[in-house]
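Regression test attached.
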Amino acid sequence: QKEVEQDPGPLSVPEGAIVSLNCTYSNSAFQYFMWYRQYSRKGPELLMYTYSSGNKEDGRFTAQVDKSSKYISLFIRDSQPSDSATYLCAMSAGRNNRLAFGKGNQVVVIP
Amino acid sequence: KAGVTQTPRYLIKTRGQQVTLSCSPISGHRSVSWYQQTPGQGLQFLFEYFSETQRNKGNFPGRFSGRQFSNSRSEMNVSTLELGDSALYLCASSYLGQNTEAFFGQGTRLTVV
């Protein structure tokens, strides 16, 4: 079983819809949870960073962490065509520990 | 402030050859991590260097190696290339090794033929 599972299936949504992405993990030691956005031919860029369980909101983006279920989510409200990208979840046991990534979800927002 | 710079952006090599990739971190950053990204496996951690010392290592064969120089620039080397080494190689830098706040370069796309 991989440490981090993320269903890589592409997701197409109409502009303005809510995008819902999630990851599950098996390593109970993970304490830090991140979401990255990667545009085509670019490196990943950090979108959201959460420590332990709870919710975090940043503009149209909301990250949720449920450590009891080993499940994290990212919601994008009022999606825009510019949100079309691959979204990767990542986790680590400590700030200086290596990152474990999900495979990524390709999201296409249709105008 | 300049971002993380990786060179070259694209490479084509033949099986059996070796290759060296370069990463220049953000000025002042002392930690550089390397990742391999493929469609099948996603992003996998290769190794991390901090102040010229390898601090963490992933589960890759010994053909993959790296080093870091005193100016924090890092290189990774892959010897005896295999077709399966075709991937996007990404490096990420952080100030003091806080990988939760790392910045990624654009990557080097390696194709092995």
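Expected vs. actual: identical. The radius of gyration of chain B is 13 Å.
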